[in-house]
Design a protein that fits this description.
Number of domains: 1
Number of strands: 4
Strand content: 15-25%
Strand order of the largest sheet: 1-2-4-3
Helix content: 25-40%
Distance between the termini: 16 Å
Number of helices: 7
Structural class: alpha+beta
């Protein structure tokens, strides 16, 4: 049997999978279940700034996406490879920026990635937000510069353009037992 943990860190930014809300709730209750009674969880979530700049860089990223698709390489931010998307996927991709999550389209995510919306989502899945703070680094969802932009530059850009992610320190709102999942 696994030992309960005092702190659990979650950064779903790198998993662009489209989870159902019910699966998210089950995942959140599983995180709560493995915490020690006084444990906390850290969630690093994308911000409105990230969504905004990802929308703005959408067309700039299209050549990079097309090259990856034609070469049969993983498509940055999507994870699929090669011609699995097909022409209809590309037409949608060219004209519409794709959403990151499951809550509507990319424009709707400007609202759903707000601090208020994340706090409401945490509350709806059984968490109390003790503290939240921007992490201070700038990046978009297309990894346009990859490792070529050092963290010091990303921190400076974060002060000017805004932080692309927010850290949430949360605790379960009620004690969780192994039978709750």
């Amino acid at each position: 049997m696994a030992r309960p943990t005092t702190c659990t860190a979650c950064a779903p930014r790198n998993s662009n999978a489209r989870f159902r809300r019910s699966l998210i709730a089950v995942g959140q209750s599983e995180i709560a279940r493995v915490l020690k009674p006084c444990g906390v969880a850290l969630h690093i979530m994308p911000s409105v700034v990230w969504r905004f700049w990802t929308l703005l860089t959408h067309y700039w990223a299209l050549p990079k996406l097309a090259v990856a698709w034609l070469a049969g390489l993983p498509i940055p931010g999507v994870g699929t490879t090669g011609p699995t998307g097909g022409i209809s996927w590309w037409l949608r991709r060219i004209f519409l920026a794709m959403p990151h999550g499951v809550m509507g389209g990319a424009l709707i995510e400007l609202k759903s990635f707000s601090r208020r919306a994340w706090c409401e989502r945490f509350a709806a899945t059984g968490w109390c937000v003790l503290r939240s703070r921007p992490l201070g680094y700038f990046y978009s969802g297309y990894v346009l510069f990859g490792g070529r932009l050092p963290l010091s530059v990303r921190a400076r850009l974060g002060r000017i353009l805004g932080s692309s992610s927010t850290l949430y320190l949360v605790v379960p709102t009620k004690p969780v037992t192994g039978n709750d999942v």
